[in-house]
Each structure stands twice: as structure tokens, then as C-alpha cells.
Amino acid sequence: MKVAIFGATGRTGIELVKQALDRGHLVTAFVRDPSPLADKGDGLTIMTGDIHDLTDVARCIEGQGAVLCALGARDLNKSMIRTAGTFNIIKAMKHNSVNRLLIVSAMGIGESWNSLSLLNKLFIATLLRNARADHEAQEAAVKASSLDWTIIRPSGLVDSPGTGVYNVGENIRARTSRIARADVADLILNELEEGSLVHKAVTITN
After folding, report:
1. Left (φ > 0), alpha (ψ -120 to 50) or beta: where does 156 sit?
2. Which fold has domain 2-205?
3. For 65, how many CA atoms within 13 A lie in the half-sphere containing its CB?
4. Quick one: residue 112, left, alpha or beta (phi over 0 = left, psi -120 to 50 = alpha)?
5. Residue 57 confidence (pLDDT)
6. Contacting residues for 112 by C-beta, under 8 A, at least 6 apart
7. Those residues with Cβ within 8 angstroms of residue 127's Cβ, 6 or more apart along the chain or in another chain
8. What is the distance between the alpha carbons of residues 206 and 187, in angstroms, rounded to a whole number?
9. pLDDT of 123
10. 0.90 surpassed by pTM
11. pLDDT of residue 146
12. What is the rounded CA–CA span in Å between residue 33 and residue 46?
């Protein structure tokens, strides 16, 4: 399948690009700086642009079969890049008649807030208040989009090797606050190929 990946040079995005290529997908990676993807090999098209520029975003999405969004902010408490970028992605998808959207959010967003421990709620509500607001607005935009969306909420991203063994469900509790980015990418690509979680927001944890 032809897929566009936004946030492709973030740590989760790089893993998504790698695994998508390994599975034989044709990947268009939307980036500001292409250097982290320089050696990823055949099947990869790199498109430089600004996520805030709707024309750039639409150019990337044209002709794609699906969009994977792993946008993130370096400054967790000042940026609303997930929301702004996702609004442009949704507009560009509708303009180009591309319907399948999968995004990486976070455990504790939306209905999954009630699955958090009191300590984690306090941590997110104080130190990650603005990041939470960005995620919440992003998810709201996705759910209102009329696209065929799936939201993936990791319990806590780490860079350890993937295991292929993890728990997935709506509003499940996490046994640990750690999930490998490689396993998140594995779930996203499985869902891209199987389509069993359309219009669902699910937590992935181990």
C-alpha cells in the first residue's frame, strides 16, 4: 500500500517508516529535515515541507492509500503541533479522497483518562497539562472528521526492542508504563493491513 507518514523523523515515526518498508509498503515520509531517513532504502519517498502549510500537506497525501500520523512536539508544554498538523492532514485527506487515518496519541487521553492511577493523573494534569490539551484537541478533530480513523494510545513510549507481545483494548489499564515504539509501530501496521479497529481508540501496553 502507498502510505504517507507524518512525524516520520521522530523516534516512533522512524520505526514506522522502517517497519512499513520491511512489510513492502511504499512510504512517503513528510519531514522538515530528511537526514534521519537518508539510509532507509528502496520504497521510500522523502517529501520536505511544513506541517502548517496546507498545500505542502496536500501534496504529500495526493495518491496515497492511507495516512499514519506520529506528530510530536519537542517542547511538550508550548506546542500545539499535533492539533494544527492534524487539522491540515484531515483537510488534505478529504481534498484528495483519502479516507484511512491512523494516529499515535497517548494513554490518559479521552476516555482512557479513567484508566490511569491517581499518581499518573496528577503528573499529567500538572507537568504535562499543555501536552494533554494538544492530544485532546487532536483526538477530537480526528473523531469529528468522518474519516476511517483509528487512534493508538501507548502507555509510555520507550526505545527498547519490540517483542510483538502486547495488550490492546479500549480503556484497559497498564501493567507497566512502558511500551516499545517498535511494538506501537507493529500494532499500527497490523491495523493498517487488517482494519479491525476502525473508529476505535485503543490503548497499547504490556
Report:
1. left
2. Rossmann fold (3.40.50)
3. 8
4. alpha
5. 98
6. 153, 170, 171, 201, 203
7. none
8. 12
9. 66
10. yes
11. 96
12. 10
**Per-residue CA distances from 29 to 144, 152, 190, 205 (Å):** 25, 19, 19, 26
Contact call for residues 66 and 192 (beta carbons, < 8 A): yes
Domain ranges of the chain: 2-205
Write out the three cell numbers for 133: 490539551
- Helix residue ranges per DSSP H, 42-80: 54-61
Alpha-carbon distances, residue 140 vs 37, 90, 115 (angstroms) = 31, 12, 19
Can you give the length of the chain in residues? 206
Alpha carbon distance 49, 129 (integer Å): 29
Q: Is 22 exposed, middle or buried (0-12, 13-18, 19+ CB in 10 A)?
A: exposed
Calpha distance 69→86 (Å, rounded):
8
Q: Please, are residues 25 and 2 in contact by the beta-carbon 8 Å criterion?
A: yes
Q: What residues have CB less than 8 Å from 104, skipping those under 6 apart?
A: 7, 12, 69, 70, 152, 154, 184, 188
Contact indicator for 157, 12 with CB cutoff of 8 Å = yes
- Per-residue pLDDT tens over the stretch 52-70: 999 999 999 999 999 999 9
The set of residues, in sequence order, having a beta carbon less than 8 Å from that of 160 and lying 6+ positions away, is: 178, 180, 182
